[in-house]
Write a structure and sequence with these properties.
Layout: E1 2-6, H1 16-30, E2 34-40, H2 55-69, E3 81-85, E4 98-101, H3 104-112, E5 118-123, H4 133-139, E6 145-148, H5 151-160, E7 166-167, E8 190-194, H6 203-214, E9 221-226, E10 238-242, H7 246-253, E11 258-261, H8 270-277, E12 281-285, E13 300-303, H9 308-320, H10 322-337, H11 341-354
Parallel strand pairs: 1-2, 1-4, 2-3, 4-5, 5-6, 6-7, 8-9, 8-11, 9-10, 11-12, 12-13
GO biological process, one term: lipopolysaccharide biosynthetic process
GO molecular function: glycosyltransferase activity
Protein name: Glycosyltransferase
C-alpha cells in the first residue's frame, strides 16, 4: 500500500499523538508499505509566519526545516518519506492508496480531495482547544473512515459519523519502556512527571501538589520531563530534564517510584502507560483518557480532576504504604504488557487493508 499521513503542523516539540503516528509509519514501512508524512505549510502557525519576509521565502525555510529536523526527537525509518507541501491539494497526491487525516485542521481538506484513494481520519483526542464543538463534530461526519483510540472518543464520534468508527488503542514500545530497576531499589520520595504548558495538561495542579510535599519531605526529588523551556514557577525540588529521547525517558522512569499526572482532559495519555511499563506506581487525575488503562486501587491511585490536594494525599499514601506501592507497580506492569505498539500497529494496518 502507498500510505500518506497528513499532519497539521511541523514542530520540534514531543507529542504523544505524533509519536504514535511515527510508530505506525515505521511499522507500515517495515511491512512492505510505501509510507509518507506530509506537513502542509498552509496550516503552519510558527514563528516563520510572524517574520516579515516574502511568503515564498517562508515556505523555503519551512521545507528546509522539515528536511533537516525530521528526526529531531524520533528516529523514522529511512524508507519513511517526510515532505513539506504548500497546502492540502490534489496536485501533491499522485498514486496514493490510503490518505490519513490526523487532526481536526486536516480533516476537511483531506475529505475534499478528489483523488480515488481511500480516506481515513485518525482521531486521538476531542480537539476543541482552538475550534468550536460544532466545527470539531462536523469533521466526524465527512464520510471518511474514522479511527479512534478510546471508548470515550468512540461514543462521541459515532454520534456524528456516517458509519461506525473503529477503535485502535494506542500502544507503547515495550522493548524500550520496561522495568530495569525494581521499585524497591529506587530512592525514597522520588517522583517523575511530564510538563506541558497547555491548559488541559493541568501542570499548575502538579506544581501545587509538589510544593505541598516538598515542605514535608526534605529529600523529595522530582524528575520533570519536558520539551519546553523551563517554567519560572517550577518547584525547587524539581530536576528539569529537556529534550529526552524515549530511551532517556525510560531510564528516568526507572529512577522514580511514583509517576504523577495532573491532566485535565486528553484522548489517551501515553506517558502514564509508559511509566506503568517501567514499574512506577501511577498517581493521576481521573481524566477520560487515563480511564482507558488506569484502574483506581488496582494499578493506580486516581483523584478528581483539578484537585491538587488529593493528588498530594495519594502520593503521601504511597510514601507510607510500600505494600500498596508494590501492588500498583506490579499490576501496572501487567497492564502495560498487554498494550504494546506492535499489536496496535498490526491492527491499524489491518484496518487500512480491509476498510
Amino acid at each position: 500500500m502507498r500510505v500518506v499521513f497528513v499532519l497539521p503542523n511541523f514542530s520540534r516539540k514531543l507529542s504523544g499523538g505524533k509519536k504514535v503516528i511515527f510508530e505506525y509509519s515505521n511499522y507500515l514501512d517495515s511491512h512492505n508499505n510505501k509510507v509518507s508524512i506530509f506537513y502542509p505549510f498552509s496550516l503552519y502557525a510558527g514563528f516563520l509566519k510572524k517574520v516579515r519576509i516574502p511568503v515564498f521565502l517562508q515556505y523555503f525555510v519551512f521545507c528546509l526545516a522539515v528536511i533537516l529536523l525530521k528526526n529531531n526527537w524520533f528516529k523514522l525509518n529511512r524508507g519513511v518519506k517526510v515532505r513539506a507541501i504548500y497546502d492540502i491539494k490534489d496536485r501533491y497526491f499522485k498514486n496514493e492508496d490510503k490518505i490519513i487525516a490526523t487532526a481536526v485542521q486536516t480533516a476537511g481538506p483531506v475529505a475534499a480531495l478528489k483523488i480515488s484513494a481511500d480516506k481515513y481520519y485518525f482521531i486521538q483526542d476531542y480537539e476543541n482547544w482552538e475550534f468550536s464543538d460544532e466545527f470539531v463534530c462536523n469533521t466526524y461526519s465527512l464520510g471518511m473512515t474514522n479511527i479512534v483510540i478510546s471508548d470515550w472518543l468512540k461514543k462521541i464520534v459515532d454520534k456524528y459519523s456516517r458509519k461506525e468508527s473503529i477503535k485502535v488503542v494506542d500502544g507503547i514500545d515495550t522493548n524500550i519502556f520496561k522495568v530495569t530497576k525494581a521499585i524497591g531499589q529506587r530512592e525514597e520520595h522520588t517522583i517523575v512527571f511530564q510538563y506541558r504548558s497547555a491548559k488541559h495538561k493541568g501542570a499548575e495542579f502538579a506544581f501545587k501538589a509538589i510544593s505541598s510535599l516538598q515542605n514535608k519531605y526534605s529529600d523529595l526529588k522530582v524528575y520533570c520531563i519536558s520539551r519546553e523551556e523551563r517554567p519560572n514557577n517550577l518547584p525547587s525540588s524539581c530536576i528539569y530534564l529537556r529534550n529526552l529521547t524515549s530511551m532517556d525517558v525510560a531510564r528516568v522512569n526507572n529512577k522514580a517510584r511514583i509517576f504523577l499526572c495532573s491532566t485535565v482532559d486528553e484522548g489517551f495519555g501515553l506517558p502514564g502507560l509508559e511509566a506503568m511499563a517501567c514499574g512506577c506506581a501511577v498517581v493521576s487525575t481521573e481524566y477520560r483518557g487515563a480511564k482507558e488503562y488506569a484502574i483506581n486501587g488496582y494499578n493506580s491511585l486516581l483523584s478528581h480532576v483539578n484537585d491538587y490536594k488529593e493528588l498530594a494525599d495519594n502520593i503521601e499514601t504511597l510514601f507510607h504504604n510500600k505494600e500498596l506501592e508494590s501492588i500498583l507497580s506490579n499490576n501496572g506492569v501487567k497492564t502495560a504488557s498487554e498494550k504494546s505498539i506492535q499489536y496496535s500497529a498490526e491492527l491499524f494496518e489491518e484496518v487500512l487493508k480491509t476498510r
